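Build the 3D complex.
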Amino acid sequence: MNDMALEACDMPSSNDILLAELELPVRPKWRMLFRRDAPIELEIGIGNGEFIAAMASMRPEHNFIGVEYALHYLRKARNRVVACGLTNVLLIHGEGGTCLSKLFSPSSLSSIYLNFPDPWEKPRHYKRRLVDEPFVCLVASRLCINGTFMMVTDSHSYAMSALELASSINALSPAVGSNGFCVGVPDGFATKYYRKWTAHGRQIYMLRFAKTGYYELPEWVSQHYPLAHLEESLPMPHVIIGGQINDWNIIASSIEVGVWVQQPMLVIKCEEVFIERDGNGLLLSMLCVEGKMQQRFIVRALSRVGETVVQIHPACRLNVTRGIQQSLGVAAQVLMRIANLKQVKRSNLGNAVHRWLGWDVGGTE
Ligand SMILES: C[S@@+](CC[C@H](N)C(=O)[O-])C[C@H]1O[C@@H](n2cnc3c(N)ncnc32)[C@H](O)[C@@H]1O
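Done.
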């Protein structure tokens, strides 16, 4: 197999322009997905896709990626892009911050657009806003030099807070031809929400910053966006415990559901316990909250001759993060304690997680 064929192996194979974030690897090879190399412009929260379709028609020499988490909007956007005959657009079903942290390498985007992000106007809801300190750090990291970040909003308080955050990053400066912030918006930005709010007589604000210097993403951003520093997807985690469990009913009835780990940026919870249909294993329904990421998944434990395997159920689609590895490790620990098994034979959770669990694993993979 040549390099291109090898790279294509972990890529979704369909020709659909609509992709799911969960189906994509960490930092996919966009040139494979677009079938060409070109500057990439990203819009987050594309709504019905008017803006991205207009931009992609105006700049056919660029590749455009639109991220949106509402499927009904995405389908409208897909229909629009297909009807316009655009071949330079891909649409991703996913959350904007997660996509920005997972799918793009540092210095890989020539533009990032946010048109009317949900404003969360009440002060007690400000923490739900997409544009906060870790997000602006990600923007600074993922833009290439001279790449621009634009945000349009009708919320004065959101505009001022985003302005303050962007201004606090040395690598971001007001874009050429702007002083970083203006009231009113140039032609070409008349999205559905622009029309809606201007018809109501609301003031519109626009932020325009460019990346003008090198920027190293701070380590702490990974506490909020756990995929931010990964360069490739982590392998599906598994643990092999020495010793066999024969009566899963006894184990299941001894497991206490509830919060197993509660730390400032990490919560691991076991929500339900089931016995496998053939009676030869256990399923744990788990929740892992790590910073802004919340993932539900099933841990499966099953015995084979002389050992017990603890793994993520193969049907689960998730992002393997440090928190997922920790969750699997904690689940294995709970089983070992209840079944009185002492030895972790092999594990691919990595040394940092082994230390966190207090494990001395002979067969680290
Ligand atoms: C107020 S609408 C604006 C739509 C469009 N940009 C416009 O200007 O007409 C906000 C859009 O962003 C999407 N959205 C909000 N937060 C998001 C997030 N964190 N990730 C992805 N999409 C998001 C919503 O589903 C919605 O489609």
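The first helix runs from residue 3 to 8.
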